[in-house]
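Summary of Year 1 activities. Much of the first year was spent building the evaluation harness for sequence design. The harness presents a backbone, in tokenized form, and records the residue chosen at every position. We chose the following record to illustrate the format because it has been used consistently in internal testing since the harness was completed.
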């Protein structure tokens, strides 16, 4: 992941406007390659999600934290963070209950509640928006729809969410959501 973010930083510096990095954190020492699905932690390949293997949070979270914080520090010190939006998000969360399958413990896909991190491009650092219930199962307050999230990303990139983007250029806005102004 660190190498991918380093390359992404160089691409941004060179003027590339959109860069996507897959957050695979690599193999733990002495492991053999099995898969690149780091964040799809269902207890795959017999590795429980709390372990230190390639598919465990004990390995992946510190590696991700180290790589993303280094990227943010680098972008900040170079002045690029002011004009670069960094987004760390998946397409869904995880079940609040841990399942204990035959191979190892894990969690399944859960679209009802999940987190995202935004930095740069005018986003106020340290801002927390919304919360979940005590089980992290459902949104407790400040629910953000996918449309609101998209509108917020467009806003951070200085693209009005109502910009028309359909093939004819007129019928569909980039997002029908509301910008989360509290983040800026």
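For this record, the design step produced the sequence shown next.
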């Amino acid at each position: 992941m660190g190498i991918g973010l380093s390359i992404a930083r160089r691409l941004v510096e060179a003027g590339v406007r959109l860069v996507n990095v897959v957050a695979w954190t690599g193999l733990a020492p002495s492991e053999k390659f099995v898969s690149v699905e780091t964040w799809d932690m269902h207890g795959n390949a017999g590795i429980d999600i709390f372990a230190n293997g390639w598919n465990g949070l004990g390995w992946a979270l510190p590696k991700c934290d180290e790589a993303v914080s280094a990227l943010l520090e680098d972008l900040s010190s170079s002045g690029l963070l002011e004009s670069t939006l960094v987004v760390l998000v998946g397409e869904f969360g995880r079940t609040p209950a841990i399942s204990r399958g035959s191979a190892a413990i894990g969690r399944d896909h859960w679209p009802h509640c999940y987190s995202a991190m935004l930095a740069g491009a005018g986003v106020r650092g340290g801002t927390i928006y919304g919360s979940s219930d005590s089980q992290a199962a459902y949104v407790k307050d400040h629910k953000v729809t996918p449309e609101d999230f998209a509108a917020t990303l467009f806003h951070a990139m200085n693209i009005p969410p109502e910009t028309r983007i359909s093939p004819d250029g007129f019928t569909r806005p980039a997002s029908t959501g509301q910008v989360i102004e509290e983040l800026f």
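The longest strand covers residues 86-89. Quantitative recovery figures across the full test set are reported in Table 2.
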